[in-house]
Amino acid sequence: MLAARVTLVALMGLFLWSQSVGQAQVTQGTTVIFSAAVVQALSFDTTLVDFGTVGQAEYDQGFAEKSPAQVATIKSNVPWQLNVRADGSTWTYAPPTGMTIADPLKPASDLEWRSTSTDPRVTTTVSTYTAMATTDAQVAAGNRGANIQLETHFRVLLDYQNDPAGDYQLTLTYTLTTQ
User: Fold this and answer.
1) What are the strands of the beta sheet with 137-142, ordered from one edge?
2) Rounded mean pLDDT, 131-148
3) For the chain, which domains are there?
4) pLDDT in tens, 107-126
5) Neighbouring C-alpha atoms within 13 Å toward the C-beta of 164
6) Which of 58, 89, 147, 163 has the fewest CB atoms in 10 Å of its CB?
7) How many other CB atoms sit within 10 Å of the CB of residue 3?
8) What is the mean pLDDT of the chain?
9) What's the CA gap between 80 and 137, in Å, rounded?
10) What is d(CA 53, CA 96) in angstroms, rounded to the nearest whole number?
11) What is the per-residue DSSP string for the chain?
12) CA dihedral in degrees (109, 59, 170, 150; nearest 10)?
């Protein structure tokens, strides 16, 4: 009987000890990290700005205007700056079919531009028409965000003497950079 009692006490002690061991807690912290890359995207509602056929009214006023000409959409997770430049110093020119007219070498600066935005994340725009150049010019700048809308407006200068009939084309390059 004593042996049964000792065995019972030993089993109860083992049970209580196992219960207290099962209730012990150990904690360990964990750190979660990641690196975010600079993310920027630029798109336009159109990549072709067509003034159509300009006529007497535009020549008489000295310019043709597209306002707005394009809407840019910017995404950036850092402060940004948008620049523009002409890819060449003159427009390419093709005379009307059947006519021989020397290339008038219309300067890129005959294309003027300006920018506007109502988006509060856009901090800088160019409100007055500015001559296009072959070096980068800041169109706008702003704070980080997605779906930032920016309008560009164009005006091409026209002159009866300097701009003969024909087709003109000027290619531009926009660059979105970090500030």
Assistant:
1) 122-125, 137-142, 80-86, 172-178
2) 98
3) 42-178 (2.60.120)
4) 999 999 999 999 999 999 99
5) 12
6) 147
7) 7
8) 92
9) 14
10) 12
11) -HHHHHHHHHHHHHHHHHHHHHT------------PPP-EEEEES-S--------HHHHHHTEEEEEEEEEEEEEESS-EEEEEEESSSB-EEEPPTT--------BGGGEEEEEE---TTEEEE--S-EE--SS-EEEEEE-SEEEEEEEEEEEEE--TTTS-SSEEE--EEEEEEE-
12) 80
Backbone angles phi, psi at 40, to 5 degrees: -140, 140
Q: From residue 12, give the alpha-carbon distance in Å to each of 2, 96, 150.
A: 15, 108, 79
pTM of the model: 0.82
